[in-house]
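Annotators were shown the component list below and the corresponding predicted structure, then asked to write short factual statements about the assembly.
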Amino acid sequence: MAIPQSTTGTRALLYGIFGFTLAVATCWVTELFDPPFSIMQVTIETLVISFLGFYTLRSMLRFIQRLELTTIELKQRHLELQEQAAQLEASRKKLMELDELKSDFVSLVSHELRTPLTSIIGFSRTLMTLPLGAEQHRRYLGIIESEGKRLAELVEEYLDMSKIESGHIALQLAPVDVVRLVHEVVEQIQSGSAVCIMTCLPAELPAVTGDVGRLKRVLLNLTDNALRYTAKGTSVIVSATAADDGPCVSVQDHGPGLTPKEAARVFEKFYRGRDSITERSRGSGLGLTIAKGIVEAHGGRLWVESEPGQGATFRFWMPKERASDARQAASLHKVHTSRSNTEDEEREGLPWRKRES
Amino acid sequence: MAQKRIVIVDDDPHITELICVNLDAAGYDVARAANGREAMERIDAARPHLIIVDVMMPEMDGWELCKTIKDDPEMDGIRIIMLTARATDRDRLIGRGIFGADEYVTKPFDVSALMDLCERLLHE
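Structure shown to annotators:
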């Protein structure tokens, strides 16, 4: 804030008058002690002294003005610095949160990887050192194999997750028969589960364009999640309906359901619900996050509908295959058919397995 | 000498099986539990000399179980081995320092080394 010019002028004038008066007074006092002074001498002395006084005061005034300006600048700078400090504090907090997330991730990943490794290493050692019966031998080899597979799956999931997060998920697009895909997934999961998986599917659904391997992963993850929260004797229902803009697939469980708060967090990485039936925190903790990431990479949507005590339904919608996609897929099909007969036969058997390479 | 009793607590059935079969072969009387609550039942019934406990478990976790046992004067003398995939120094410090575990073993562990450790703790 600058001092208004008029005030400065007035002040200067006041100081001038003050200086002049001071000079006159000085002369008068000097004259008292030293009478022979001419009028001329007194006037010159008075003028010189008053000018000196005026200039001194004016420079002092300017100095004060500068000081005031500097104070204002300093205050502004201080405010700016405070703002910067607040920004730095915010980024520090964010970095710390990220760091915490990272260490959570590392400790969870290491936990999930260490557990199957323990079985693999431990049972191999046991097989080498203990005299075991043939049946036990076979069973332990079976455990080593299944834990090895689990380890491989985990690694695959972590890689998928990092691809989804970085937005570098490469989809190998081809027309996908959703009904067929559901049947295949249910068959695969049902064989190893005590819970009944029921399906409710129309004869056919509009084809979607997608990466069949990844869409299968979505269905596997959703069904696997449903099984975790469904008690023996009850069932999981996988159903599909056709909307105008594309098919919608639902996986419904009869578990404890989700509170709105839990539903909001259920797709978060490493989020685990309460009352898991399996009572074991197996799995990567990424199943639902990956499923949502894959569906969204296809331009679809995945969401959950649930109420506490009423089970949960995870639903995903995929956009219907567009004519341009169909043409693209058809032209690719042509390219493939010209290559070899075996390839052609394979494709005929499993038309929805066609991959764009 | 009477057979020493050991309770193994882990929510992963493969791990309990692994330790169980090895301890069995070494001549111990072994009981299994899948979580802290089940473990307390086994401990009350069997009065074990040693407990091998996992940290991350549903219901009652390993820390809590360890503290309950160490705080109970009636369970004085029960040795505890914490067996966990949590391998940071901080966890180790918490396990031994705060919750009073006698030993802290990280997964994946060497089965023979674990057997030696049990042997040592039981005969100290």
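Statements collected:
1. The beta strands of chain B are 5-9, 29-33, 50-54, 79-84, 103-106.
2. The CA atoms of residues 56 and 62 of chain B lie 6 Å apart.
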